[in-house]
Amino acid sequence: MDEKQTSPELSQAELMPTQGEQVPANPPSRKRQIAVDSDDDKPQPKRARLTRKNLALFDKMGKKKDPQDSTTSSQKTKTTSTTPSGFADQAYKNGILPPRHSKPPKNLEDIHKRHTTSRATASPTESEYKRYTNKVGRAPNEATIVVEISRRMLKDYDDEGYHQSFNQSFTGFPEGVGFNNGLSAPQPDFVEGLEKREYDPFPVDEYILYDDDPDSLALPHLAGEWKGRGKNMEEARLQSAYDGAALVFARNQALSYIGKPDPLGHAEVTTFATDGTTLNQYAHYAEESEDGTTKYHQYRFKSTNLINSHGDFKDGYKHLRNAQDHARSQSSSAAHSNLLRKGPLSLY
After folding, report:
1. What burial class does residue 312 get, using C-beta atoms within 10 Å of its C-beta: 0-12 exposed, 13-18 middle, 19+ buried?
2. Interior CA angle at 274 toward 271 and 280, to 5°?
3. What is the tens place of the pLDDT at every residue in 161-205?
4. What are the structural domain ranges in the chain?
5. Ranges 61-65, 257-261, 341-345, most confident
6. 313 neighbors 307 (Cβ within 8 angstroms)
7. Where are the annotated segments for Disordered (predicted)?
8. Is the bond preceding residue 201 a cis peptide, omega within 30 degrees?
9. Phi, psi of 340 (to 5 degrees)
10. 3-state class of 172 per DSSP?
């Protein structure tokens, strides 16, 4: 068989690089070359030249971000002044009383009657109760408890101007007015109320909850605190005491401004604290003590074990929704009354 001859000119052209070309130190394999050639209709990325400018860019890209510069939006922003160690003592000095030192409100009988009233809507079924206990029993953290309680127990109103807010600091609330001396702004896990525009045409900027927010809530009457399964319910109780004092303070300032304060010892503000298993509900009011200081009472009027039985779950569901209805009626009454006929109210 004749051997195939190669032209010297052709061999020279194949072996010698053209002017300006560089022979790679490690030429690509034939398999790699075929893969590239079979896709030659697509533009290929260009290699960055090893200039000083590009090296500086590579160095900048390779630097790790300082972990101290990063923040997470899910992190709760309550300051150290609201931790149990320092917060409890300061709150007590400010006149916020724990339940064991609080007196029952004068309208306690009305509160019990209001919260135990049967509802027009159907109660949760036994299958809904079992689904709830299953979800809560497996909840890994507080956020899951918030979702399950909100989805399965709280009422969602159709009113365009009545809304819920979760874990947002009261940035629009005045500082140093007695109950909050030396403490960071209240930041309930849950609060529900009317938007400030529902009080139009009367200005309510002096007692909105959130600064620089055209949709801020104003004069709410219900707040809540959650804890994860097995976490510290006493901390939730303490935080709800602070939340309740803030709502009572705003309500009393508004009523005093128009000369129609609540009867002495009457409670119209409600808070709750729950870990998904236990639901504690509190009535809040303020009164002047003999030494002239204001005391903020937090009276627990109901405690329900939500997973003990289907009947207990239905009771907790009813009590919580009745508290929502009462809070909504109080906010609506303020918005549609002569509450602000004299002009803007100052909380300072």
Report:
1. middle
2. 55
3. 899 999 999 988 889 999 999 999 999 999 999 887 776 666 566
4. 97-335
5. 257-261
6. yes
7. 1-135
8. yes
9. -115, 25
10. coil
